[in-house]
Amino acid sequence: MFRKPEWALALSVLLGAGIQILLTVYSAIMCSIGGTFSVANPVLMLSLVVTLFPCFAIVNGFVAAKFYTFWNGSDWMNLAFFAAISYPSFVGICFTIIDVSEWV
Hints:
This protein is mainly α. The protein contains four helices and no strands. The protein has helices at 8-34, 42-55, 57-70, 76-103. It is flat. The termini are far apart.
């Protein structure tokens, strides 16, 4: 019923990064609702998100690998490399463009 996507590597990397972001946001919201961290103190919330994001990198790699093997992918070294650097490099490039455009 399902056919292999043309860009299985890219789709797997994006699915893994999406799960990582989703779990980070969900955990931060749950900590805020539970009263562990307050939204009134944004520095603590930022430190929580910065701490949780690398912790969910394991889930990113797991989900990306599961989907990639589901679509019969075999280039696991490229998958691991792109899953590790895709989202952080995208955010870094966006922030660099924003900073440079503010200077001009």
